[in-house]
């Protein structure tokens, strides 16, 4: 391999590794915001026109403000029940889309701990996102959350 080709390959690998690390950091911060009831930070990780679908919902949630409202309601109910919830993201696969966005797919295990209780697996899901680069960071423009215990999305 010529020096120029080697340098280009090394630069590409370094850029790819840096992008993947920034994506992992994005998801870690997003999950921490969700689990820590930081509704505004969590909602801010979605585009204004985001679409959030799940086989556990009657229909899609559209827009950042709707995400904020739904997240606030869920957090209020969980806190009232005295439950702590943690999202554990694993096995993240990343594919580049034609428009420069990224498609990601990972497993999310939700662990729940009741007040003075032991942690228990609450839900097992697959999370499929389209994320876009914005101002040096990432935003989710589409998310599908597929619970393992329910029929797939239609």
What does it look like?
The protein has 154 residues and is an alpha+beta fold. It has helices at 3-35, 39-43, 64-80; strands spanning 46-54, 61-62, 83-96, 102-114, 120-134, 137-147. The chain has a six-stranded mixed sheet with strand order 2-1-6-5-4-3, covered by helices on one side. The termini are far apart. The model has no long low-confidence stretch (mean pLDDT 92).
In short:
By secondary structure, the protein is α+β, with helices and mostly antiparallel strands. It starts with a helix and ends in a 7-residue tail after the last strand. It is built from 3 helices and 6 strands, in the order ααββαββββ.
Shape, per Cα inertia axes? globular
- Determine the N-to-C terminus distance: 49 Å
Low-confidence stretches: none
Which strand order does the major sheet show? 2-1-6-5-4-3
Overall average pLDDT: 92
**What structural class should be given to the helix and strand makeup?**
alpha+beta
Strand content: 35-45%
Helix content: 25-40%
Largest sheet: 6 strands, mixed
Radius of gyration: 18 Å
The helix count comes to 3
Per DSSP E runs of 2 or more residues, the count of β-strands stands at: 6
């Amino acid at each position: 391999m010529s020096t120029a080709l080697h340098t280009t390959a090394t630069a590409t690998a370094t850029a790819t590794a840096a992008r993947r690390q920034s994506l992992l950091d994005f998801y870690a911060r997003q999950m921490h915001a969700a689990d820590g009831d930081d509704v505004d930070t969590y909602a801010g990780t979605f585009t204004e026109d985001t679409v959030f679908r799940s086989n556990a919902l009657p229909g899609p949630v559209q827009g950042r403000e709707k995400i904020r409202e739904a997240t606030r309601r869920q957090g209020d109910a969980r806190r009232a029940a005295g439950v702590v919830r943690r999202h554990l993201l694993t096995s993240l696969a990343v594919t580049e889309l034609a428009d420069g966005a990224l498609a990601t797919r990972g497993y999310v295990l939700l662990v729940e701990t009741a007040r003075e209780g032991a942690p228990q697996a609450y839900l097992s899901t697959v999370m499929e996102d389209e994320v876009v680069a914005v101002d040096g960071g990432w935003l989710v423009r589409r998310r599908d959350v597929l619970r393992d215990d329910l029929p797939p999305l239609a």
